[in-house]
Amino acid sequence: MFYGLLDLPWWGYIVSALILTHITIASVTIFLHRHQAHRALDLHPAISHFFRFWLWLTTGMETKAWAAIHRKHHAKCETEDDPHSPQIMGLSTVLKNGAELYRREGKNVETLERYGHGTPNDWLERNIYTPHSAKGLAIALLLDLLLFGVPGLTIWAIQMMWIPFFAAGIINGVGHYFGYRNFECPDAATNIVPWGILIGGEELHNNHHTYPTSAKFSVKWWEFDLGWLYIKTLSAFGLVKVKRTVPRPEIIPGKNQINITDLQAIIHNRIQVMTEYSKGVILPLFKQGKEKNSIERGVWLRIKTALIRENAVIDEVWRRDLEQFLEKNKTLGIVYQFRTQLQSIWDRTTANQKELLEALQEWCRRAEATGIQKLQDFVCYLKGYTIKSLPA
Known about the structure:
- By secondary structure, the protein is mainly α.
- The protein has two domains: 10-242, no CATH class; 250-386, no CATH class.
- Helices cover 64% and strands 3% of the residues.
- It has 19 helices and four strands.
- It has helices at 10-37, 45-58, 63-75, 86-89, 91-106, 109-115, 123-129, 133-148, 151-173, 196-199, 205-210, 226-236, 260-268, 270-292, 297-308, 316-328, 330-346, 353-369, 373-383; strands at residues 41-43, 240-242, 250-251, 385-386.
- The strands form two sheets. The protein has a two-stranded antiparallel sheet. Strands 3-4 form a two-stranded antiparallel ribbon.
């Protein structure tokens, strides 16, 4: 019985550990994250309960607590109220203590009541999964010992460390600190690759923070979302119904007027629009200014980042470097002011659609009047922007 009922070769235990931890990763990204926290998809009751049961066995995580903490993270991202922001707490703290940060926030009754709505509340949840979360871990340990023998203890330990390290540590830590960004969302979320097999697509964190209700995390042709592959496979068997994905805009050449429907599409995808402004207007002019000025590389990188990032995630040193640079580069200063003014239109939460449309049309008129070609090209892009059907 030293090697358990299965009595596998040495490599069989390694494969078994990888398979078991991978099922847990799939359960987290499909059930907890995309289904429960963001309602991006609907799951068949059978597959939904399998994921819930598996997470009870292998993580001890409570569905309501996990969903509530994650929703709060999105609502309060990179602020003092964010349950696990490395920008606030430091990267080392989140990497080392990510699981503990979850446990601590899970005891916050206000968080559970405000953000935990719509999660399972059936007899099993009330009487077994939530009050006896530790017993699931104990059962998993016994099963691992029975099936794999003494090596099962190591397999169980790996299962216990997998989510705290990769999800609570890597995604919540590194995923808000290092990596590349497809979109300038209002927080520090980044994409980190090539960890798709280990994290199930969760590494595409910047994409997710830009479109949190999308069931698919990849947006570039070369990005690989393994969780999405599983979702499509389950969908083929009628076990999953996808509700939302990243919207794909259509730019209509020659269109010269923005209407209410276009406005809705632009506002809904404002991060995508602002990213296009950065790539098509600001960065080309910044490159021209860079060629005309002699500034050390570190300062250049700070200025470049500050030009396209939200003010909320720029520190004072970066802001001061940016201001000094813009004073010497008048054209870039103008387009940066227009960026700020365009951003302020999205922030007018009390304005009605007619007022927002008038503000956007006026912004376009003033942008065209500057005579700056890159800015005029962006106005053409904005006027031609439309989406045939917005996400539900």
